[in-house]
Amino acid sequence: MVDLEQVIQSLDWHQEPQGLYSPIEYTLAGGGKRLRPRLALMAAKMYGGEDLALPVALALEIFHNFTLLHDDLMDKAPTRRGRPTVYVRWNENTAILSGDQMLIEAYKQLEALPPKQLPHILHIFNKMATEICKGQQLDMEFEQREHVSAEEYMDMIRLKTSVLLGTALEAGAYIAGASDADQHNLREAGIQLGLAFQIQDDILDTFGDVATFGKPIGGDILNNKKTLLLITALTLADEEQLTTLNTWLSAQQGTFNPQEKIDAVRSIYEATGAKKLCENRMHFCTKAALAALDKIPADTTEIRKLADKLTNREK
Amino acid sequence: MVDLEQVIQSLDWHQEPQGLYSPIEYTLAGGGKRLRPRLALMAAKMYGGEDLALPVALALEIFHNFTLLHDDLMDKAPTRRGRPTVYVRWNENTAILSGDQMLIEAYKQLEALPPKQLPHILHIFNKMATEICKGQQLDMEFEQREHVSAEEYMDMIRLKTSVLLGTALEAGAYIAGASDADQHNLREAGIQLGLAFQIQDDILDTFGDVATFGKPIGGDILNNKKTLLLITALTLADEEQLTTLNTWLSAQQGTFNPQEKIDAVRSIYEATGAKKLCENRMHFCTKAALAALDKIPADTTEIRKLADKLTNREK
Question: Which residues does chain A have within 8 Å of residue B104's beta carbon, measured at their own beta carbons?
Answer without folding.
Answer: 103, 126, 129-130, 133
